[in-house]
Amino acid sequence: MAVFLNANRQPGVRDAPLRSCKLASLARQALIAEAELTPKPGLVDRRGSGAHTDLSLDLMRRSATVLEPYFASMAAVAEGRTPTRDLRAELAAIGRDAERAMYKATAGANSHKGAIWILGLLVAAAAQRDDLSATEIASAAGAIARFPDRASLNVVTHGDIVRKRYGVAGARGEACQGFPHVVQAGLPMLRRQRKAGFREDVCRLDALLEVMSRLDDTCLLYRGGIEALNVTKARAQAVLVAGGYGCPQGRIEAGGLDRELIARRVSPGGSADLLAATIFLDAVERRQSVVSSDESI
After folding, report:
1. Does domain 12-148+160-285 have CATH number 1.25.40.10?
2. DSSP 3-state assignment of 287?
């Protein structure tokens, strides 16, 4: 069997079969495709750091690359298995190692903590069988997520604080529900716009807006409160009503949303993570080995 040779012997990273390596490569590519997609409202892209002060495009690329072998390890431990408490614990241990590697690579910046959770579950679910649809992968990931991680019960995250304060699902609830904002929002919009003949960057940007218009994004809530969330959802919907990134008025509306988020110093990071998940699942379902590139508008 072909294997992924972990020459550096990073903690928590195992030698991985070829399929797991391919899934990990798609996860890395999806994260980089999301980061490079331009122009995104309030987010890091090719223009700059958006509303962030501690992130850059180079850092996002570096973070995604560092995470690839950990995604391969997550996929490897899940190959041929069904969701169980033991599998959940193994994935969580690898995920914690991945977080440490991320923070080391970024000098302490949180570039992809949410994405480690989301894409880690999805690569593990995709590795269980090679004939699953995007919806089936998301559902299988939800089945894994619903098992509790006992090692993290006493750890309070920003997401935990926001969930308690505002009563929203957050990334954990999104996963446990089978990623509804990916399956019911991001993927349908991506495919609808692609079928309509729009360029790939427009399709992905509109998919991001569709997620933003519906998601109770805990990144927005933590930094800007309920007002920032409501304004963002309403203005994202306004961009779509105006025609999305594929028409001039939609781009004008999107530019206004971008300036609003930067002025408020808030960023829809949760939506960005779900866009990366959308890109990943789309590529897996289409049996791609490479995430197609986009052309920025």
Report:
1. no
2. coil
